[in-house]
């Protein structure tokens, strides 16, 4: 299944992102939290959070805390799919994690100032790495991680990342951008990896948005390829140092599994494991894989002998 | 486990009048369809249009319409409102080449993207919007929007009215097939309204958790909520549904509903996205008159 990838890591990939991170780190989060009685229940307190991100854009998220807690909690950052309206991550909070559901720019509740739409987000400013949507989108996810690290009820050395599809791609990006601060990561069916291979291997949306763009603007092919090199999960791979698991569906009709193999090869962490699921599409074996993910985070975030993080 | 059997006594006494009133309200409003080509989403197989039209309220809606290149009319797929803010030209993961075979209309109902002015739907939150009164419940309008989408599809010369399928990963295709009996086929996963409160009590997962959230905060409204939802339970629409039906999900509580549908019905247990997807594509292609299905590359061979 593994094929040589056509993705080329730009020579200035690391300086580019160090510059973006430096600009982001100069911005205070200015986070606000409001408890939502409608969504809270006896086991979970649910908060709506807003914080500042690049380009002066205010970003939203759901923050869930177990109501019964004693001492700092392990935490999970849940990252959303491309079309997904970020769900309230109550289930992980019931399991004892402080859990944040991120809504990067353009998602519901984070689109008052920026909204290229769906379809559309994937190719918004795609010919310029300095204004491409995903420059800010990735940083919005990074700052959700920063929000968790800033919370007094969270153990800053026990924060994990998880998501599938675009959530998997964002998991890879944040793990690469926050490096050793990330304790563990689980990426399913990762999107945003091997862009140019993906549009050759499949003709389905959302990657088809790039195909639409190139058909309409054929002269922009080189600029598109150049930009995407800075945002390709495969290029973030060498920066990842935390324990990480990746699950793929071998019949994935949205994110070709070949690109997932290329990503896995590129991941720099020595503690990495791949779970390919035959007979599965973009779900990437979710039903079979969920217990694997639960056990992985219990080991790396809760530690031996810790009872439900409480 | 909720009792899956059909309970006719729970059907509201004014069920027929409630829906007749809505359809009459819709009938009184011109659709006022406006059409604009979208070159960015057109390709060698198809031309894509953005349609705007009016539903009850009045409320202006949006739909993508992808029409195959060549001589029509074409068998048509109508994607009704999904439980999400986003609306696609063709569902994520479907082979783009399908657009060369089928006319495809994808509706943005009130509150969804491209139809979110003046009102943007909250997710979560849509499922309980106005739920205290069946006249104000948001899904009354959304059902009207779906009926109007079918009307607009049928008004198009490119659409083969004898081969029209309604699709959606929720209950709406069943409701709309009853209210707009032109559909020849439907594919549905009745996961929102069929015995909704019974099923919500068994889960803490969204979207059904929205009902639990609401009743936790407003326990004294339980009777009104149940009364409103009764107008939307597909079991009460089922006897009027004559379309050939595929129910995806196959949960035990859907067996009673499957039996209540008047047309030929297949209940398919869910396995994986790949296996469910191949099954649905082949089922639909066969039903609409084709020997083969157009599958995405990862599903071929």
Walk me through what this model shows.
- The complex is a heterodimer of chains A (310) and B (301).
- Chain A is an alpha/beta fold and 310 residues long.
- Chain A has one domain (13-302): Rossmann fold.
- Chain A has ten helices and nine strands.
- Chain A has helices spanning 13-25, 90-94, 133-150, 166-178, 195-201, 208-216, 221-229, 233-236, 257-266, 286-302; strands at residues 32-35, 44-53, 57-66, 73-79, 98-103, 154-164, 184-188, 244-249, 272-277.
- Chain A has a nine-stranded mixed sheet, sandwiched between helices.
- In chain A, strand 1 and strand 2 (44-53) form a beta hairpin.
- Chain A is globular.
- The model of chain A has no long low-confidence stretch (mean pLDDT 96).
- Chain B has a single domain (8-289), classed as Alpha/Beta hydrolase fold, catalytic domain (Rossmann fold), CATH 3.40.50.1820.
- Chain B has eight helices and nine strands.
- In chain B, 28% of the residues lie in helices and 20% in strands.
- Chain B is globular and about 55 Å long.
- The N and C termini of chain B lie far apart (40 Å).
- With 301 residues, chain B is of the alpha/beta class.
- Chains A and B meet through helix 2 and helix 6 of A and helix 5 and helix 8 of B.
């Amino acid at each position: 299944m593994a094929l040589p990838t056509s993705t080329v890591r730009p020579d200035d990939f690391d300086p580019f992102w160090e510059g973006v991170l430096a600009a982001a780190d100069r911005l205070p989060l200015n986070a606000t939290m409001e408890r939502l009685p409608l969504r809270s229940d006896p086991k979970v307190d649910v908060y709506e959070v807003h914080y500042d991100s690049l380009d002066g854009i205010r970003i939203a998220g759901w923050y869930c805390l177990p109501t019964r807690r004693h001492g700092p909690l392990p935490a999970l950052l849940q990252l959303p799919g491309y079309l997904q309206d970020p769900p309230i991550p109550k289930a992980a909070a019931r399991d004892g994690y402080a859990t944040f559901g991120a809504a990067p720019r353009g998602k519901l509740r984070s689109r008052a100032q920026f909204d290229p739409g769906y379809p559309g987000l994937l190719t918004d400013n795609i010919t310029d790495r300095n204004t491409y949507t995903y420059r800010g989108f990735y940083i919005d996810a990074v700052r959700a991680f920063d929000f968790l690290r800033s919370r007094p009820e969270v153990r800053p050395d026990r924060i994990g990342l998880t998501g599938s599809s675009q959530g998997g791609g964002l998991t890879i990006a944040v793990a690469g951008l926050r490096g050793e601060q990330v304790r563990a990561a689980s990426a399913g069916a990762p999107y945003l990896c091997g862009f140019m291979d993906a549009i050759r291997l499949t003709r389905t949306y959302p990657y088809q948005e790039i195909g639409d763009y190139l058909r309409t603007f054929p002269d922009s092919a080189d600029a598109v390829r150049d930009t995407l090199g800075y945002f390709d999960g495969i290029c973030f791979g060498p920066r990842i140092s935390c324990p990480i698991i990746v699950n793929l569906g071998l019949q994935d009709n949205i994110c070709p599994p070949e690109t997932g193999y290329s990503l896995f090869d590129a991941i720099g962490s020595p503690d990495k494991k791949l779970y390919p699921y035959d007979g599965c599409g973009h779900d990437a074996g979710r039903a079979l894989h969920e217990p694997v993910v639960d056990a992985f985070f219990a080991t790396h975030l809760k530690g031996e002998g810790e009872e439900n993080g409480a | 486990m909720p009792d899956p059997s059909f309970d006719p006594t729970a059907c509201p006494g004014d069920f027929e009048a409630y829906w007749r009133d809505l359809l009459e309200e819709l009938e009184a409003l011109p659709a006022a369809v406006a059409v604009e080509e979208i070159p960015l989403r057109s390709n060698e197989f198809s031309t894509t249009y953005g349609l705007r039209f009016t539903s009850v309220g009045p409320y202006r809606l949006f739909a993508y319409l992808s029409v195959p290149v060549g001589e029509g009319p074409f068998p048509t797929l109508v994607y009704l409102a999904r439980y999400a803010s986003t609306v696609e030209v063709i569902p994520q993961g479907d082979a783009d080449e399908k657009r060369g075979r089928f006319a495809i209309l994808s509706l943005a109902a009130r509150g969804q993207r491209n139809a979110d002015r003046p009102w943007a739907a909250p997710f979560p939150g849509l499922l309980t919007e106005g739920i205290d009164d069946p006249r104000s419940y948001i899904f009354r309008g959304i059902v009207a929007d779906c009926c109007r989408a079918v009307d607009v599809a049928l008004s198009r010369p490119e659409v083969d009215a004898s081969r029209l399928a309604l699709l959606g990963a929720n209950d709406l295709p069943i409701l709309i097939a009853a209210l707009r009996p032109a559909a020849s086929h439907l594919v549905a996963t009745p996961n929102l309204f069929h015995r909704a409160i019974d099923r919500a009590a068994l889960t803490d997962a969204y979207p059904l958790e929205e009902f639990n959230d609401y009743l936790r905060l407003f326990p004294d409204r339980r009777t009104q909520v149940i009364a409103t939802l009764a107008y939307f339970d597909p079991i009460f629409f089922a006897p009027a549904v004559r379309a050939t039906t595929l129910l995806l999900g196959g949960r035990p509580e859907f067996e009673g509903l499957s039996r209540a549908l008047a047309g030929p019905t297949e209940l398919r247990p869910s396995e994986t996205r790949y296996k469910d997807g191949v099954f649905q594509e082949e089922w639909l292609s066969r039903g609409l008159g084709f020997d083969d299905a157009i599958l995405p590359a990862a599903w071929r061979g």
